[in-house]
Amino acid sequence: MSKRNLTRRQSWRIQKIQDERSARAERRAERAEETLLGGDLGSEQQGLVIAHFGVQVDVEALDGAERGQVRRCHRRANLPALVTGDRVVWRADNQQSGVIVALQPRRTELFRPDHRGQLKPVAANVDRLVIVFAALPQPHRNLIDRYLVAAEQAQLEPLLVLNKADLLELPEHAEIRTWLDDYAALGYRTLCLSATAGDGLDTLRRELRDHVNVFVGQSGVGKSSLINALLPDADLRVGALSEMTGKGTHTTTTARLFHFPEGGDLIDSPGIREFGLMHISHEDLLDGFIEFRPFLGHCRFRDCQHLHEPGCALLAAVASGAISPGRMNSYRHILASLQDN
Ligand SMILES: Nc1nc2c(ncn2[C@@H]2O[C@H](COP(=O)(O)OP(=O)(O)OP(=O)(O)O)[C@@H](O)[C@H]2O)c(=O)[nH]1
Ligand SMILES: [Zn+2]
């Protein structure tokens, strides 16, 4: 036999020696890193990633004497890539920066395709998707429903915000308010307000408290107007965004975390605002229409597309009024768009 057969015990010993070697190498690398960073590091502290710039991230101290202050940090090489919203353990150095030594488990992750179409996390621990729409620009139910599907998929609680309430007084826009009622009837949180007139902003502030929020919606619905009204230090926000623009390639994906004065956080970037518009599977699409769920699996044909098949449980539910024709149309519209690409 040319190949040496190792006994289990021998392989175990070899593995153990290798493990010890790599652990020693890791400790050496850490010590070298600490020396490089200017000697002793402070004790371990909890932190929140509020922005990232390639290999560096801005970490806000969540405890200790520096609570609320921000340091630019490097991460240990053995850690995965970090995203805005990540909870981390970090140690300060004596040069106004620090090292991230651990990543806490993420409660949720928001993904976006990178330039090669690979899904990459862009934000962590978001739990609220604020879907903004308005009478103008003309809203599309299938777009709102698409965001709802994305929210279900990412396990974010959606909040439907109908902005520009002032325009609803015009008879041609009156019908839009009934959409909110439809969504409320499905069990979704809804809110009608006006960013410019200020109506309903206090309710919105209360809704955002205790959550990490992301705003999405068609261009022109008033996302920036709302965010500026909620973050009174608008200069700081505009400044932060233009700073990113200066950084070139990461402009569209670098997300920032902001604290609302009344509590709650916002994660925002041009890329984050597009969350929910990426490809979804047929299964996720169906599952994202929450009122469809009781009927799924009850069609005559296992591969039913719920379009015009005989014995379709969803079509029967539309006929009986359990599913609204508007939502069924949305489903069809989104399904067709999935099959087109
Ligand atoms: N009538 C009315 N107009 C509003 C209201 N809120 C915002 N607008 C106007 O709507 C327009 C678009 O608002 P933005 O805040 O830029 O919209 P946006 O969603 O951030 O758009 P993008 O930045 O393109 O994504 C602006 O002219 C606002 O002044 C509102 O409550 N009522
Ligand atoms: Zn069916």
TrEMBL record:
Organism: Halopseudomonas pertucinogena
Cofactor: Zn(2+)
Biological role stated in the UniProt entry: One of several proteins that assist in the late maturation steps of the functional core of the 30S ribosomal subunit. Helps release RbfA from mature subunits. May play a role in the assembly of ribosomal proteins into the subunit. Circularly permuted GTPase that catalyzes slow GTP hydrolysis, GTPase activity is stimulated by the 30S ribosomal subunit.
Keywords: Cytoplasm, GTP-binding, Hydrolase, Metal-binding, Nucleotide-binding, Ribosome biogenesis, RNA-binding, rRNA-binding, Zinc
Cofactor annotation remark: Binds 1 zinc ion per subunit.
NCBIfam families xrefs: PRK12288.1, ribosome small subunit-dependent GTPase A
Protein name in the entry: Small ribosomal subunit biogenesis GTPase RsgA
Matches recorded under Gene3D superfamilies: Nucleic acid-binding proteins, P-loop containing nucleotide triphosphate hydrolases, Probable gtpase engc, domain 3
Residue stretches making up the EngC GTPase domain: 124-273
CP-type G domain mapped to chain residues: 116-275
